[in-house]
Amino acid sequence: MLNASHAFSGFSSNDIAAARAFYGETLGLDVTEENGLLHLRFAGGGHTIIYPKPNHEPATFTVLNFPVEDVDAAVDRLAAAGVTFERYPGLDQDERGIARGQGPTIAWFKDPAGNILSVLDG
After folding, report:
1. What is the pLDDT of residue 4?
2. Which of these, 57, 61, 60, 65, lies nearest to 40 by C-alpha position?
């Protein structure tokens, strides 16, 4: 029924201007704004929208994953751009926040609204 649909996901932010700067400048994504919504466009044609929500509460799960060829290099580049990586109790992570050997190699970080994102082996 929906197999031909070009589906996309979305999540909220309490500060669209900060989100636009973070996703566009810090992460280097293709970001456009239309009718108050941010549109993130990804390699391969996928996209996500970020919509304003004054009573936004960050998700407690990963809302957006970025598969990369080299997680270590991605973490280094993002950290140099000011991104802070999350540490989770009970999870075996190295000093930079990278988890290995418990699934894909992955590191989590948050956007300005507190939404959880990741870079992982892709």
Report:
1. 87
2. 65
